[in-house]
Each structure stands twice: as structure tokens, then as C-alpha cells.
Amino acid sequence: MCARLGGVRPTSVQLSVSESQLHRWIRGQNSPPAVAIFRLAQLSGARLRWVAWGEGPMLAEPSADPDAADTTSDEMIDLPSLEECTSTGIQGNFLAMRRRWILEQLHVEPETLRHLLMQGDSMEPTLLAGEVLLVARHSGPGLNRDGIYVVRINGALRIKRLQQMEGGRMRVSSDNAAYTDFSVTPGGPDQVEILGRVVCAVRPQ
């Protein structure tokens, strides 16, 4: 990985860590934080799942359509935090990512993406506290598909699995069996706002 970025020293500079810290990660003495894993994938062009977990090929398969690559910019874009966009968190918190990587790996429009730090244990073992989540902003009151969403219910920000039910109701569940499922009705007595769908999570090794 460091060889793709010009060696240990250039890699440590681009990650804003010391060379000794980078060597500890390489030797497996401790684990890089989720943000560093994101940054390594972005800088090297490697697949996020390969950097994070060693799964699959290191590089994405080339596009079968030669024209597609010409229309995909490889510029860096700044993803704002979801908390900032909803006025509930720290201002000026951005995550830099490559546009092409987002399109090829996540298959979503980069302009719709926000990032959020996972807190709590309600979605274990699927999502762990401390992971960085990439969230595709949601439009409209209902669900386009079942999945894991960031949702505000009666003023509380939650990360839950949502499932469409009959009559417009939604089942709200946690992957941790210690938490109880419940249901809500968007536009009903509950104040429900679906902020976005979780499309990616990076966990420290």
C-alpha cells in the first residue's frame, strides 16, 4: 500500500501521522482509525473493502464502457457531516473523498453523500461505535427501499433498520436483540424525518 503512495514517508505525510505510527499499523501493533482507512483507500485508488478487511481484489474492475471513464471526474470533493447539515453538530467537519471512487464503489451521486460517526450499540454487530458511516441523503417522506437509515423521530436522531409496512407505517428495528422494535407513521402523530440511507461503514481492523 505504501509503495503505491511513494513509500512510508510520503504516506505518513498524506495521512498526517508520524512514520512510527504508520509502522505500528503496518506491523499490526495497533489499528488505524476508520478515517485513516478511508483516506488510504482514496489516495491509493484501492477498494475500500480491501483496505479495511482484505476482502476481494485490491483494485476495482475497469469499466466495460470506455466512454464512462471519460465522463467520470477524479477530483476530490468535500463531504459535509450529516450533523452539520441538520444543525445538530460541529460546523466545518468535512471528509475529503474522490468522486470517481464514490461512483465506482458506492454507486451513488457524490453530491448526496454525508458522513456521520456511529455511536451506541443498538446496531451491533452490523455497525459498531466509532465507525464512519457514509449516508446518501433521502428525499420524500416514504422509503424507496428497506435498509439502514439515519432518521429523526420526535426530535431524536437514530440509526435504525427501516422496513415499509402496510398502511404507510414503518417498522423501526435494531440489529442488537437487546433493543425493542417499534413502528411509526410518517405524516402521522409521530414526527418522522428520514435523513438518509447508510451506504457504507468503515470499521477499524
Describe the structure.
The chain is α+β, with helices and mostly antiparallel strands and 205 residues long. The chain is 25% helix and 27% strand. It contains seven helices and nine strands. The chain has helices spanning 8-15, 19-27, 34-44, 48-53, 66-70, 82-85, 99-106, and strands at 76-80, 94-98, 113-117, 132-137, 147-153, 156-164, 170-173, 182-184, 192-202. It has a seven-stranded antiparallel sheet. The protein has a two-stranded antiparallel sheet with strand order 1-2. A hairpin with a 5-residue loop joins strand 6 and strand 7 (170-173). Helix 1 crosses helix 2 (19-27). The longest helix has 11 residues, at 34-44. It is elongated and about 60 Å long. The two termini are 16 Å apart. Mean pLDDT is 78; it is low at 66-72 and 85-92.
| General form | elongated
Average pLDDT: 78
* Total strands: 9
Low-confidence stretches: 66-72, 85-92
What is the helical fraction, as a range of percent?
10-25%
How large is the count of helical segments? 7
For the CA atoms, what is the radius of gyration?
19 Å
Helix/strand/pairing class, anyone? alpha+beta
Question: What is the straight-line distance between the termini?
Answer: 16 Å
H-E order: HHHHHEHEHEEEEEEE
Strand order of the largest sheet: 3-4-9-5-6-7-8
Residue fraction in strands: 25-35%
Main beta sheet: 7 strands, antiparallel
What's the oligomerization state?
single chain
Summarize the structure.
The chain is α+β, with helices and mostly antiparallel strands and 205 residues long. It contains seven helices and nine strands; from the N terminus they run H-H-H-H-H-E-H-E-H-E-E-E-E-E-E-E.
